[in-house]
Predict the 3D structure of the following.
Amino acid sequence: MSILLAIAALVAAPSGAATGFVLRFPLSATVNAVAVVVGSMLGMFAGRLLKEDTRTAIFIANGLATVSIGTGMALKTGNAVIMVMAIVSGVIVGELLRLEDRINAAADRFQKRLHVTSGGRWAEGLVTASLIYCIGPMTIIGSIQEGMTGNGTLIYTKSILDLVISISLAATLGSGVAFSAIPVFIIQGSLTLLGSALGFLMQPYILNELTATGGLMVIAIGINLLGLKKIKLANLLPGLIFAVLYALLFHALKLV
């Protein structure tokens, strides 16, 4: 996603804007990935000590908290039409590309190569945790901010939050949560490395729609955790790209 956004930025940028491109080592992404692994290890250890009823209660609590967080994010939209168009367009593309099936198949193959067993929830833990950690304004703002200024404070703060969340998730979803550190590092690291090109995402009218569309995805995660409906989360991901495109279009038309 970050690569596509970078290309869009270079195309849309004024002549010469790309000459200030700077690459910075994604230190904050590294710290965040380590925090996820440490939290997951603590969570897996704690999960072995908890009764099944307690793990179920934690699972439900995670779901409720996730829905609440997603609702707050969705309310950031400056124009609900953009949010709806983005998520609908995204899910159509995601379904056509069968993103969820492909990601789960890849995760299952990776799990088998590692000879890891996790009660059939390994891929679910990987995908769920990855989306929770990577969808949100802190990820976008913090990573790009480090890429542009070298200041990774926001991601360091996020790392503490993710460590706590990892403990809770890993206690119920197992070792797949720990491996979400890989996409966390790749996605946040890419945003940091491409920070100079992706600075346009910091515009409020774009960031609000990215946050709102991501909020709908976070709500979907919560619904899955609560067991209310099985939603194919990965199929929603293209919606983030459409959120940027529609925000740019609506802004050009002076509708936001």
Q: What stands out?
A: The radius of gyration is 18 Å.
